[in-house]
């Protein structure tokens, strides 16, 4: 599965320099906490990935100054923010607007429709992407809401505001 990357419909912030590095560093403690909690609550997620538990996924929210590096290996779980110029080689890259990516995690958006409308850019190992999508589809409830709940009322308020802004764009 590969999208045309020559004329990306997205205006992306540069993923290098001091802003990207500082942003990645500041968000990292949150990401570490979130990935541990998701792993604790949804251990079967990893089973669905099969041999792709060790695949490196680069998730690139285009309006943020960094990307996310995910390796869903339950023995060495990684979710970290990385400036784009320091991103590791990845078996899969998934690129789109932050809220689209968040809604895809919760299966509230149609990934195929987003891909074919070029709102979502996917490159790399097709099987790994399909397995990740199927694993996320099997999760009961909302990972986004679980994550927001970890931070109490402020977390829920931020998620609500993000969702409202996404619907209005």
From TrEMBL:
Residues 64-137 form the SCP2 domain. It comes from the Bacteria. It holds the Pfam family SCP2. This is SCP2 sterol-binding domain-containing protein. It comes from Ruegeria pomeroyi.
